[in-house]
Each structure stands twice: as structure tokens, then as C-alpha cells.
Design a protein that fits this description.
This protein has 13 helices and 15 strands. By secondary structure, the chain is of the alpha/beta class. Helix 7 links the parallel strand 7 and strand 8. The chain is globular and about 55 Å long.
Length: 381
């Protein structure tokens, strides 16, 4: 398999494409490394599938093709050894939509939803938007390694806690949770009769060769019955703007609850999203492997640069294309603002529930990343 055929150094100019990522700093000399989309062209197979669908010329309401369902079930089986039934799939126009739907389906108004911080911001906003109460527990830092504090999570559970939101691999700290860690989560959910929503959208972006993604729902029928797994090709194949995600839900009653929560508020997935997703899962593997190699090189560049930044450390990046930098020892109260003034647009840790940090998206060309890191080093010195 030739993974050298894709040129990740040659990226399109996104400055005039109405890009959310690039438009934030339009007209300013600021390198955008914030929101989690990559600057790379999507796989050639995806582009070809989109051209073919457009050439058909009719863009009516469209169901998920049976061939896409087969591609997804094949992918989950081949990559994780996870055998699912086609009827377990619920198609969604986005993962954030899925988080909100699950919160809406879990319990009643005023009930509690538990999650661990730092965390992708919609984990904290979705419960509130759906009339629930978000309860947050800090992850525990062990050197450059982040861990879940199961005892603290258990203490935070009350009689009104109905749902646990899990992120695996974790955004932003980059952890791939191990089987013992996931078993502890499953046992916690079973002890307290909690539903679990497991965001596994970065599962295909494992950077460490000795790590393997394990879907929480694979740990046994008891946890599978109470788990909603959210997944999508969007992060891996850089197609988030096409809005095609899915939930895997083994329990029929839980699926029915989610469908009721979706009624009247969740639109259909668009037909181009379906076409891109199927092509990605069927034909995108050579591109994905080449992407992982390139991202590993970018990760090494970050590790070397951060080693020369006084008072800055970076969490071990086991997965994703996101680096979580700790600047608390620098005494800088708003590091995101400092770096923006220096010409690098990052996500401030306060947005993730933990000030003093920044998240850096390294899904970009190596040359652009190198320039951004130099600007950061100059700002700190």
C-alpha cells in the first residue's frame, strides 16, 4: 500500500472559502490553529464520489444507502472487532447534535449530566441547552499523563444523575483510554444506573502504534444496553462541513427514546454527506494511513518546540491532531490572548473548563505549523 502518493504539504488556500477556521482572523496576520478541522484536501476517493453524486443532478431528500450502512458496519468490525447490527445505526447531521439529542433523551428537566474537564465545550453546553444540569469533575494530571478520577466521579453522582458523557479518544488531552480505565467507567455506570454517551469521533486518529481504540460498548451486553456511541468520518477524512455522523445504539428502547428526542428538531443528513462517508470508509484507508504518518511528524515538531519554551509543557498526544499545552507555570493569565497578539490563533483552555492551557490544532502543513511555533516561542521569550 503506497502511502507516499498524498502531498500533505501542498494545501489549498482557504482564506477566501468562507472557512469558519480562517475567517475568524480575516484581514489579520494570525495563523488559525483553533477549531478542529484540518487544512488538507480530503481523500481523492471522496472527491470522486462527490463529483459523481453531483453529476446525477438531483438533490432530493435522501435516505442512508444500504451500501453506506454496510461500509460502516464493515469498518467497525475490521478496525475494532466490533460486530454491530444495521438497525443499531441512527444517522445524525453532526456529533454536537448527537450530544444534545442524548441529553434531551436522558431523564427529565433539571436532572444531571456528568462529564470530566477539560473537555470539548459542547459537553458542558449541551446539558444546559436541553434543560439539564452539567456536573463536571476534573481529570487528574499525573506528570504529562491525564487520568480519569473514578472516585471523584463517583462522589459527584447524585440521585438526579442520569447520564455520563465520555470522550474517547479524549479531546483535548489526547488520551486513548485503556481497557481497565473503560471498565472502571462501565462499572460506575452500572452501579449508578447511568446512561453513557461515548464520543468516539477521533477513534481512527490513533497516533501511538502501541495503542488501540476500544469502543466502550464492546465491554459487554450490560454496558452496551445503556451506551450511545457517537461516531463520524468527519474528523478523520476532513469532511466536517458535509454534516454526516451516526450513533450506534444496541438497545431498542434507547433507540426509540433518541428518535423521540429527535422528532421535529433534527434535520435529515444531506445526500453529499452520505456519499462522502461511504467513499471514505470504503476507499480512504491509504489516505488515512498517510495522514497518520504526517500527523506524527507534526507531533514531533511540537514536542521539540515546546521543550524550548520556558514554563510550557504538553500532554502526551496519543491520538487526535490536537495538542494540549500547559502554560500555568509561565504566570500568563490568558495565554490564548497572548498568542493571538503574537499571530497564532489557538483555543484558550478556559473554553474547555481549565484556564491556563491552550489547545493547538496541528492538522496543517508542516511549514505553517513551524511558523506558528516560532511565533509562539518569540512571544514567550
Amino acid at each position: 500500500m503506497n502511502t507516499t502518493a498524498f502531498d500533505f504539504d501542498a494545501v489549498p488556500d482557504r482564506s477566501a472559502s468562507s472557512s469558519l477556521k480562517w475567517n475568524r482572523y480575516q484581514g489579520r496576520d494570525v495563523i488559525p490553529l483553533w477549531v478542529a478541522d484540518m487544512d488538507f484536501r480530503s481523500p481523492p476517493a471522496v472527491l470522486a464520489a462527490l463529483h459523481a453524486r453531483i453529476d446525477h443532478g438531483v438533490f432530493g431528500y435522501t435516505l442512508a444507502p444500504d451500501s453506506l450502512t454496510a461500509a460502516v458496519t464493515d469498518h467497525l468490525r475490521q478496525h475494532y472487532g466490533w460486530a454491530i447490527e444495521p438497525e443499531w445505526l441512527i444517522w445524525l447531521p453532526g456529533l454536537v447534535c448527537g450530544l444534545n439529542v442524548v441529553c434531551r433523551a436522558a431523564g427529565d428537566i433539571g436532572d444531571e449530566v456528568l462529564t470530566c474537564i477539560p473537555i470539548y465545550p459542547p459537553f458542558m453546553s449541551a446539558p444546559t441547552l436541553m434543560g439539564r444540569t452539567a456536573v463536571t469533575v476534573p481529570l487528574r494530571q499525573n506528570g504529562l499523563h491525564w487520568e480519569m478520577d473514578i472516585e471523584a466521579m463517583e462522589r459527584a453522582i447524585s440521585p438526579r444523575t442520569r447520564l455520563l458523557l465520555l470522550c474517547n479518544p479524549h479531546n483535548p488531552v489526547g488520551r486513548v483510554w485503556t481497557e481497565p480505565e473503560l471498565r472502571a467507567v462501565a462499572e460506575l455506570a452500572l452501579r449508578h444506573d447511568l446512561l453513557v454517551c461515548s464520543d468516539e469521533i477521533h477513534a481512527d486518529l490513533i497516533l501511538d502504534a502501541d495503542k488501540r481504540h476500544l469502543p466502550l460498548a464492546m465491554l459487554g451486553p450490560e454496558i452496551a444496553r445503556r451506551t450511545v456511541t457517537l461516531h463520524a468520518p468527519s474528523k478523520t477524512y476532513n469532511i466536517p462541513g458535509l454534516g454526516c455522523s451516526f450513533a450506534v445504539v444496541a438497545d431498542p428502547g434507547l433507540r426509540q427514546s433518541l428518535h423521540r428526542a429527535m422528532d421535529g428538531i433534527v434535520p435529515h443528513v444531506n445526500l453529499l454527506g452520505y456519499a462522502a462517508a461511504e467513499a471514505a470508509y470504503r476507499f480512504g484507508e491509504p489516505w488515512r494511513l498517510a495522514l497518520l504518518d504526517y500527523l506524527r511528524g507534526n507531533r514531533e515538531l511540537i514536542m521539540r518546540a515546546v521543550a524550548d519554551m520556558n514554563g510550557v509543557t504538553v500532554a502526551q498526544i496519543e491520538a487526535t491532531y490536537l495538542a494540549w499545552l500547559d502554560l500555568r507555570q509561565t504566570g500568563i493569565s490568558r495565554p490564548g490572548r497572548l498568542f493571538e497578539q503574537a499571530g497564532v490563533g489557538l483555543s484558550d483552555g478556559a473554553e474547555f473548563g481549565l484556564p491556563g492551557f491552550v489547545r493547538l490544532n496541528f492538522g496543517c502543513s508542516r511549514a505553517l505549523l513551524g511558523e506558528a511555533l516560532q511565533r509562539m516561542q518569540r512571544a514567550l521569550s
